[in-house]
Amino acid sequence: MSPSGAEVIKEIRSQVDEVDPQAVRDERGRNGLVLVDVRESEEFEREHIPGAKHVPRGYLESRIEGAVPDRDAHVVLYCATGQRSALAANTLKSLMGYEHVESMTGGITLWKDRGYDTVVPKSLTKEQRDRYSRHLLLPEVGSEGQQKLLDAKVLLLGAGGLGSPTALYLAAAGVGTLGIVDDDDVDLSNLQRQVIHTTDRIGEAKVDSAETSIKAINPDVEVVKHRTRLDASNVMELIEPYDIIVDGVDNFPTRYLLNDATVRTRKPVVSASILGFDGQLSVFAPYVGPCYRCLYPVPPPAELAPSCGANGVLGVLPGTMGLLQATEVIKLIIGQGDPLIGRLLLYEALGATFTELKVHRDPDCPICSRDPGDISDEEMGRFPDYEAFCAAAG
Ligand SMILES: [Zn+2]
Fold it and tell me: Among 22, 143, 307, 368, who pairs with 251 as Cys (CB 3.0-4.6 Å)?
């Protein structure tokens, strides 16, 4: 006679190592313990243990390697009561070669009975589930990542060539707050590349035009308009409410000023620049990787300084670079992938080549070699003789 389901479960549970919730709580965050919730998505989204990864039992074999690539890792699985996690632990051990895997006794139910902490994630509305469904299907984003995007506050410097595509795609992705700093009006000559603006909005303030386009794509996004120029008097106040700064400015004094202010406030900057057929991109994460001044202690050669006058640019190039910027912003928000920290990406459109340069922190950097508190207002944004520098460019 075949054994009953209950007998099979009992037999499997006798072969699996079980661990008490108290031991899990005490060991959490130590010794590389990886906690994996194997319940269904609705259960995980209702409530889970902080720091737990989510791999539903139905997707165990196909997704566990994404969540826990190291088969020697100490893995603890849990479910609602300890039954599904025991079956999943058995699969990982006997079929997939995970050596050090345990099932948590009593599941999240016992965990909660003991009064241990849980996370009750904010839930997405029905409309948001539809709107972001292609994000929700990615384990790297999921509803947790989408919630991070909705909670994120990103400041875009400029609603121009780079700012336009970045803003449109960040808005579409559901970044909840987009601040835009721009004091310019829409001009006919902008429309060859600044795709957030339209012909019928020529003469309108760029921040207003950008807001109209963003709201049309995604009403979830709050647009904060800063119709001003970034300068030493307002930089600290402007960047203060934001998590990430997207730098698309086309002049060096502002770039140095922004760098110094973001090092002081330890805010990451996703920075891109474009000229002609060439683009550059990097992520400056203060005290993690190099800052802008580590790369450029002095400005690049004058003939390469776009702000010295109007320069030609291929219309699609800011689109390419702006979307790479948007991608880096999203990675930083959801905490996935390898951001371009300490790496400078060069794109050359005519040759269709990408080149990556490693860049290092400069131990003698005038700004980030020091404590943020030691950087005074007077020093911020000091830029070596800019007038003379542009004059030399002819
Ligand atoms: Zn530096």
Answer: 307
Q: Tell me how far the alpha carbon of residue 291 lies from the centroid of ligand 1, in angstroms.
A: 4
Same domain, 226 and 90: no
What is the whole-number distance in angstroms between the Cα of residue 95 and the centre of ligand 1? 49
User: What's the domain count of the chain?
Assistant: 2
* Distance between Cα 309 and ligand 1 center (Å): 27
* Ligand 1 centroid distance, CA of 287 (Å): 8
CB 119 within 8 A of CB 43: no
Q: What is the rounded radius of gyration, in angstroms, for the C-alpha atoms of the chain?
A: 25
Is 305 part of a structural domain of the chain? yes
Ligand 1 centroid – CA 289 distance (Å): 8
- What is d(CA 356, CA 346) in angstroms, rounded to the nearest whole number? 6
Q: Six-digit token pair at 244?
A: 């990430």
Domain harbouring 357, CATH code: 3.40.50.720
- Same domain membership, residue 104 and residue 161: no
SS3 category, 225: strand
Nearest-CA neighbor of 45 among 113, 128, 161? 128
Cα-to-centroid distance, 367 and ligand 1 (Å): 5
Identify the band that residue 377 occupies on the pLDDT scale cut at 50, 70 and 90: confident
CA of 181 to the centre of ligand 1 (A): 24
pLDDT band at residue 251 using 50, 70 and 90 as cut-offs: confident
Model-level pTM? Answer: 0.72
Q: Give 125-180 pLDDT, tens digit per residue.
A: 999 999 999 999 998 999 889 999 999 999 999 999 999 999 999 999 999 999 99
Gap from CA of 259 to ligand 1 centroid (Å) = 9
Choice among 39-53, 91-105, 228-242, 369-383 with the minimum mean pLDDT = 369-383
Q: In one letter, which amino acid is 298? A: V
**Distance, CA 177 to ligand 1 centroid (Å)?**
28
Q: 371 CA distance to ligand 1 centroid (A)?
A: 11
Asked whether residue 163 falls in the same domain as residue 52, the answer is: no
What percentage of the chain exceeds 90 in pLDDT? 73
Is residue 319 domain-shared with residue 191, that is, in the same domain?
Answer: yes
Range of 30's domain? 5-113
Distance CA 77, CA 104 (A): 6
What is the distance in A from the centroid of ligand 1 to the CA of 339?
Answer: 18
Query: Using one digit for the tens of pLDDT, what is the confidence trace for 211-231?
Result: 999 999 999 899 999 999 998
Q: Quick one: 339 and 389 in the same domain?
A: yes
